[in-house]
Amino acid sequence: MSNQHKIISIIIFILFIILALRLVWIQVINSAEYEHKALSQRVKEFVVDSERGIIYDNTGRKLAVSLPAKTVVSLPDNIINPEKTASELAENLDISYNTIYRRITSEAAAIFLQRKVSEKTYQEIESKNLKGITFTEESKRYYPEGQLASHIIGFTGVDNNGLNGLELSYNNYLSGEAGKMIVEKDAEGKTIPNGIREAVPGRDGYNVHLTIDEVIQYMAEKELKNAADKFDFSGGSVIVMDSSNGDLLAMANTPLYNPNNFSNYPEKSWRNRAINDVFEPGSTFKIITAASALEEGVITENDILTDPGHIYVGNEEISCWSNVGHGKQTFAEVVKNSCNPGFVEVGLKMDKETFHSYIKAFGFGEQTGIRLPAEAAGIIPDYDRIGPVELATFSFGHGISVTPIQLASAISAVAN
Description:
3-stranded antiparallel beta sheet, about 20% strand, 16 helices, alpha+beta
């Protein structure tokens, strides 16, 4: 054998050894990695969305439901004329030509153009029969009653996660759990019939049943709107509560908004004033003063008090709304006349510790625990900073701040 043949034989032998070692590396040492790559090429995992739960009022009327909606999807590799396609889509979608063109010419296999479009938009785009433009079905939140109880119910974002109201605070219950399905594909990427390798079922969201009554809620919002039209005020709240058990039958706020298109309204319109805002309760707090004093026995409804039109507490003069005062009157008449000096006298009959304990017992200064986002706690001055003047002003609802839901709860306790 010539030297040339020997060299060729040695080279072939070395190549054979290299090939053998490579095969050992692929098939033995690193087999798991290549098995995983092969498997990933012929199987695909699909997410199976769960259905968001329904929100009902106390009689079973639907206040929030989920409806099917189309999402516009681009398949860039299948688009023949991107300029014409982008121009056609810009006529129907809420995004610009440049944005559409950039997305449909991207290197992605598929890309969302606009999610959850209206049925009209879907029909218009579908009729154009644009190559490379397809649709996928998702679920869209819908509020059948529009503005009704919007501050209670709240709304969801494009991904169906709650962003406000009960949709936010009960999101984990309403949203459910997505499932998944793993299927096999052929060499062309098509799903093989009966080629399901694994299926993990999802769980639909739980339904939520409210104590809110749609009819009472409607009347509360109607009367609040009438007041807003008649009087010049920045906003208000109406709460209707069953005093026998604390059930909330209505909670209305102004200004209203429609959660079906919440982004068209300023954020201040989304605010639930009934639980988020605090204010001085004023004369409405006199009910608490009266209930506390009667319970403690420091006054009876027939005890006589005198109102000359003012009362002095230390160096502070507290006036009555009546310039001439109410003269001699029973405590029942003090309540009827909403007489400030009379309530100051009664408030001072209770010592600081007693009156403060009643204020706390009625729930002021802390959250009620209602399952709505961002509930305020109200403001009660620190105990050590309460003197005779502060105690006097508390008696007719000044010097403290409460939320409407706190006040409604406290008054319901008195009514009960």
